[in-house]
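Page 47, continued from p. 46.
Same chain as before, 214 aa.
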Amino acid sequence: MNRTQVRHVLDTIGTMFPDAHCELRHENPFELTIAVLLSAQCTDETVNKVTADLFHKYKKPEDYIAVPLEELEMDIRRIGLFRNKAKNIQQLCRILLERYNGEIPREHERLVELPGVGRKTANVVVSNAFDEPAIAVDTHVERVSKRLALANWKDSVLEVERKLMKQVPREEWTLTHHRLIFFGRYHCKAQNPQCEICPLLPMCREGQKRMKKR
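Result:
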């Protein structure tokens, strides 16, 4: 895909979702990190329902390690993989207190060393909490990027991220990340994409296949 085509994709999605943003509710970098950790294999909607009570009960790292692991597990039991996530949260909080004075580190390389924090989570945190341009590739971003030929079908998540970083202007990385998520979540869905009304249908390999089958 050439620069003109990439620009067309970015501008079109931007027009469709001008107000795209992080839908995980949070008030500080610490809450955002916990929310993103919880969101793995879980919808933002479910995470927000759980954190509405969770963030009222637990304000800082000390609060999470002051309770038994079983209590924290019960507080997040509606979340997928809740037992493993509860353990990671407590371990993460201990490290924050031991090494970072209870604060979330700003550096990407330090974030990915925290329990339960992978590359995607770190990208979300640095971009949304610290205004550092980044593209986090979740299931929506990966699906849309491959359908629109911004990446190849067999590309890994890391390869998709690198290709997007190369094609998208750096100052637009974070905004593009949010817009691709909204586009994938509300329009170009995994099972029932709205191909028939999609302005990007001419550029979409998947969409053209689907339309031929109708």
